[in-house]
Write a structure and sequence with these properties.
With 773 residues, the protein is α+β, with helices and mostly antiparallel strands. Among the domains are: 2-171 and 284-318, no CATH class; 177-281, no CATH class. Helices cover 17% and strands 21% of the residues. A hairpin with a 6-residue loop joins strand 1 and strand 2. 54% of the residues are buried.
Length: 773
């Protein structure tokens, strides 16, 4: 209630936009009309399938408690019935004959507008796929990369050639203004630089693009991962820069559309960061897009036809539904559940299952001036409020005791949840706060309806799975985010495919048949025996964190030593992690707090922002940092590979050190590369710090002589495996272990073994089967 009270008082006098289009008669708030714009056949499965591309027209009752928590819905433009309207795209993948359908629908969350088609394995199970829009910020790069841009013909009631992306048209508060922060990183030369967030335009236009009065452009020469800024004072005079649509300061193009660019008189220095605080106008009611995602699913699951008699093509054939999102979309999945949106306006459950993949936070989609594309770089939202499932105190930030599941538990509409993620989500996407809270001193209990699976030492989304003793050379990795730079280490090949394939089957069986998934596996604060941490050794199957500490104590018993009890989740220092010194390419300086793990930063967004709900109106730009939240990371073994999580072949039969992080390249690094499209000249602002949410790898030397000459503390391939056959035996044992414990399908196990047999590991033409050239 707190957020609603301050919104009513602070926003009561805000201007409302002109009335929206009225396309339906008076009715309860819901999807009122569907239009199928195109149908097509789909091949690649065992029965005929078709796709339906279309739009859903809907309306929301702002007084309904399920909608009242949407920021600005009370002052949004309304139709004659007092409802708030939206238009959202959908894409259905279905059996041509719905009598053959399995009854299960996968409701996929688009990532930055990307349309999703369910894979052939699910079509062969006769499942239905639904991809529908949620992100209403109306931002796109170009006609061929439209992202979430809403087309000009969005509102027509006639079928039209459909757009290639998923978009939702939400209300706009015309005439409302506020201040935001934009940042320009690693740009060089005299040309214009765009105001972007994660490669897409910042979705708000300046109050007056011909006049920069009141805006402030400052220069930063350094920023730490913990948010300490070195700023050049005074700010750049407003006479020395302009808003522009392109061109240069001397010859700027007018601003006609997004992205808005900045033209600087003396050009941009790629060794500096430029931060702009400026007034913007016309915010979107972003939360209406979240409600549209709910309502579209509810319509196709429950309704027979729309208000105008158009039949629901799935009517009566959907018994179960699963919401599934990857990365940004996984963050939305967590956000959706937190808002209680898994109950529709008729008090029915919307999704029976939920699967947020590689997602460690919640997306910023229910605040004024929200930027859902953000990836938690400095001054971006996403970690506000409870990030954990179970109700838990937030003592550091002095916020109420809350949990993501609070609302759905009260309405008995919580889904069965599987969450999967890996190393990059810990080191750059702030995952571990959801395990241990802001105090970072206790494992937060995992509810019975949640299973958690950690893929140790993995990059964001998993690697290419390559099995070779000579992986792709260093410097091929680009750090994601806002023009971040290049990584110095090789790409991390640890694949997520095996775990994802297994969990897709597990979640489907759990939802449809109540078959329990495999036991949860992730690093915790609870001590276990030293050397037991390769897969956490939690052999219980109830999904909580009370692991029974079973498992081999391998090396300690062999040496006659008494095993030590150690946690698998530790502070992010070289010593606490047990990270070995001397691994080539990894300087000890990377482990300094200024450079290493991205912590959660507790921002003060101002008095009109509800920091527990992550809603309302932020007024501080940039926001002061009140706390740097303590972040924990997995402990590692003598090779630098993470302990804890599900068993993997790379974990138990490694070819190198696999990292959930990389190191951003700096001046003189030969691995830079120069992406011509962004004007990047090889001197990234973040040089020497952790690369933004991408992993790395440092391969083992082949022979003992080579690694001793280099001072590498890690055993060579020769010392580990001896021969190619020895490596294959190690992979076979590791693959069978993962399969036997329930974390790998038989087909993926067999493929990993076959890949090892065919690999070049100790199997080069001159090797003679031994690990020596």
């Amino acid at each position: 209630m707190k957020s609603q009270l301050f919104r009513k008082s602070a926003l009561a006098g805000a201007a409302a936009a002109a009335a929206a289009l009225a396309w339906a008669p008076a009715s309860d708030a819901r999807v009122t009309r569907i239009i199928v714009d195109a149908t097509a056949t789909l091949t690649g499965q065992d029965i005929p399938y078709q796709t339906l591309t279309g739009r859903a027209f809907g309306e929301l009752d702002p007084s309904d408690p399920r909608n009242a928590l949407i920021t600005d819905i009370a002052i949004a433009p309304k139709n004659a019935n007092g409802k708030v309207e939206y238009i959202a795209t959908f894409f259905i993948v279905k059996p041509l004959d719905m009598a053959q359908a399995s009854g299960l629908m996968w409701h996929d969350v688009p990532n930055r507008g990307g349309r999703i088609t369910i894979t052939a394995d699910l079509r062969n199970l006769h499942d239905v796929g639904l991809s529908s829009a949620w992100q209403g910020d109306n931002a796109g790069v170009s006609a061929t990369s439209p992202a979430t841009r809403v087309p000009a013909n969005a509102s027509t009631l006639s079928p039209v050639p459909p757009s290639i992306n998923e978009w939702v048209k939400v209300p706009v508060l015309s005439g409302v203004t506020g201040k935001i922060v934009g940042r320009i990183i690693n740009r060089s030369g005299p040309g214009a630089a765009p105001l972007n967030v994660m490669g897409n335009p910042i979705p708000y236009s300046p109050l007056d693009s011909t006049n920069n009065a009141g805006a402030t452009l400052t220069v930063h020469t350094h920023e730490t991962i913990t948010g300490v800024v070195t700023e050049v004072l005074p700010a750049i005079p407003n006479s020395d820069w302009k808003f522009c649509g392109g061109g240069t300061f001397a010859a700027p193009a007018p601003v006609t559309t997004l992205p808005v660019n900045v033209c600087l008189k003396d050009g941009f220095d790629p060794a500096k960061l430029y931060q702009l605080v400026y007034t913007v106008k016309d915010p979107y009611v972003l939360g209406a897009g979240t409600a549209a995602f709910r309502d579209v699913q509810s319509f196709f699951r429950y309704e027979v036809k729309d208000d105008f008699g158009t039949a629901n093509p799935l009517a009566g054939k959907i018994r179960w539904a699963i919401i599934r999102g990857v990365s940004q979309s996984g963050n939305f999945t967590r956000h959706f559940i937190h808002l209680g949106m898994n109950q529709d306006e008729a008090r029915r459950i919307v999704h029976d299952g939920a699967w947020p993949l590689i997602a460690g936070r919640r997306v910023a989609n229910n605040s004024r001036w929200g930027q859902p594309d953000g990836v938690l770089e400095l001054y971006q939202m996403g970690s506000e409020g409870p990030q954990w499932w179970h109700e838990w105190p937030d003592l550091v930030r002095d916020l109420p005791t809350r949990g993501i599941l609070d609302r759905c538990e009260r309405t008995h509409t919580c889904p069965k949840i599987v969450e999967t993620f890996g190393g990059a989500e810990v080191f750059a996407l702030k995952m571990t706060m959801s395990w241990v809270g802001t105090s970072a001193d206790h494992d937060i209990p995992v509810p019975k309806n949640v299973r958690r699976y950690y893929l140790p030492s993995s990059t964001h989304g998993g690697g290419n799975g390559e099995t070779t003793e000579a992986p792709v050379a260093a410097g091929a990795v680009s750090c994601p985010g806002n023009n971040w730079g290049k990584g110095t280490l090789r790409a991390n090949p640890v694949p997520s495919t095996g775990l994802v394939n297994r969990m897709r089957v597990a979640l489907r069986d759990w939802v449809m048949n109540s078959t329990p998934p495999p036991p949860s596996q992730w690093p915790t604060l609870k001590p276990i025996k030293a050397n037991d941490g390769r897969d956490g050794d939690r052999d219980d199957d109830d999904g909580d964190d009370d692991g029974d500490r079973k498992g081999g104590d391998r090396d300690d018993h062999k040496k006659g030593k008494k095993p030590k009890w150690q946690p698998l989740l530790v502070e992010p220092t070289m010593k606490a992690m047990g990270f070995p010194k001397g691994i080539p390419g990894i300087s000890e300086s990377i482990f300094l707090p200024d450079n290493f793990v991205f912590p959660v930063l507790d921002y003060n967004w101002g008095p009109q922002y509800d920091h527990s709900e992550a809603s309302g109106v932020p007024t501080n730009a940039p926001p002061p940092i009140r706390h740097v939240i303590k972040t924990l990371v997995p402990r590692v073994d003598a090779d630098g590979n993470e302990l804890g999580g599900v068993p993997t072949v790379q974990r138990d039969a490694p070819l190198g050190t696999y990292l959930g992080w990389n190191i951003t390249a700096g001046p003189g690094d030969p691995s830079h590369g120069i992406p011509a499209d962004v004007g990047y000249d090889g001197r990234p602002f973040h040089a020497g710090q952790v690369c933004n949410y991408v992993g790395g790898m440092v391969p083992f030397f082949k022979t003992k002589a080579q690694r001793l000459a280099a001072g590498d503390p890690r055993l060579s391939l020769e010392e580990r495996y001896g021969t190619h056959d020895g490596y294959v035996k190690a992979v076979t044992a590791a693959a069978n272990n993962a399969f036997n414990k329930g974390y790998l399908l038989a087909a993926d196990r067999d493929a990993l073994i076959a890949q090892a047999v065919a690999s070049d590991v100790c199997n080069q033409p001159t090797d003679g089967g031994k690990c020596k050239p």
